[in-house]
Please model this.
Amino acid sequence: MSRMIYDYTKSVLERVSFDQVLFIKELKKAVKVLLPYELEQLRNWLLFFTDQKPELRPCLYVVGLVAA
Model:
């Protein structure tokens, strides 16, 4: 069941990646609902995803990847 939440979170983040405010909002939700190992997987995925969308890099502070 939790794998479905992780996959759903990724798809939502991809869909809202056009807007930094929405992206941050969805990242904050993800931090609340994902399990610790899923959050680590999400961090790895975010590093890959934001290579293609560098304008979203500043948003990664929400998951602890960049200093605020």
